[in-house]
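Ops channel
N.P.: pipeline sanity check, posting one input/output pair.
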């Protein structure tokens, strides 16, 4: 049953986010990608297979590891200015791995891990390169969506296969490995260019605050509340935070559009 969920759930979520991003643009795609598309199911599989205490400790380690996701996003975006997508992925993954190892040398509580994650995602958005808005995306080839889904399955099976042998701390450390982010970001970069990739990350980074809250609730509630109530509460908190972030992104986009309007009018005059 668990293997069936791994084969269906995550690629299905990747497909939904991909289709939404194609329809409404990389900003919505980046915002949706911050939902626990891969790490959430991975933590749930760990709870099924290893128990509540294990997943609580894993979620605690995941919180600190989210800072490495922010580093991946920043390094990918700056590398994308001059390099192709595959180089950006290799450089970003290397940075993620190095920072993950460094972070695990420190003892993190759920509260300190939450503070680190929120601070990292907040700072990361402001250091992204400033690029013009991406042009409308070209029509994707027929093989694009199936390839994304197959890539997601392969990466999820790899990460969850290793996680069960590593214990809760190392399992939690590798859980935020940017699986869905890499797939969606690399395809966006390859098909629409660096501007679209950075636009994706501008929505993704602040929206990741909701995922940090998901892990925080899970770390504190998995043992006391039980597996299912803890996951439902964590998901509810995550969705509420995600909605607030979207309202903030919409307000910011409206202000930026208003500033561009007068400038465009002056240039045309």
């Amino acid at each position: 049953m668990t293997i069936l969920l791994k084969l269906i759930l995550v690629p299905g979520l990747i497909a939904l986010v991909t289709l939404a991003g194609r329809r409404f643009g990389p900003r919505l795609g980046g915002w949706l990608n911050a939902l626990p598309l891969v790490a959430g199911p991975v933590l749930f599989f760990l709870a099924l297979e290893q128990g509540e205490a294990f997943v609580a400790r894993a979620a605690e380690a995941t919180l600190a590891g989210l800072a490495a996701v922010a580093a991946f996003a920043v390094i990918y975006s700056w590398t994308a200015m001059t390099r192709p997508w595959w180089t950006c992925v290799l450089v970003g993954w290397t940075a993620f791995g190095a920072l993950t190892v460094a972070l695990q040398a420190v003892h993190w509580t759920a509260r300190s891990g939450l503070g680190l994650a929120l601070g990292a995602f907040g700072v990361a958005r402001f250091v992204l390169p400033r690029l013009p808005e991406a042009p409308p995306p070209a029509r994707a080839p027929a093989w694009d969506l199936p390839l994304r889904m197959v890539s997601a399955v392969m990466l999820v099976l790899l990460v969850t296969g290793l996680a069960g042998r590593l214990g809760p701390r190392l399992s939690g450390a590798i859980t935020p490995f940017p699986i869905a982010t890499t797939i969606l970001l690399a395809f966006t970069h390859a098909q629409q260019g660096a501007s679209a990739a950075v636009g994706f990350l501008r929505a993704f980074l602040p929206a990741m605050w909701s995922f940090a809250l998901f892990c925080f609730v899970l770390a504190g509630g998995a043992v006391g509340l039980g597996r299912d109530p803890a996951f439902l509460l964590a998901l509810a908190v995550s969705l509420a935070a995600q909605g607030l972030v979207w309202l903030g992104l919409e307000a910011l986009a409206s202000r930026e559009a208003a500033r561009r309007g007068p400038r465009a009018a002056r240039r045309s005059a």
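N.P.: looks fine end to end. The mean pLDDT is 83.
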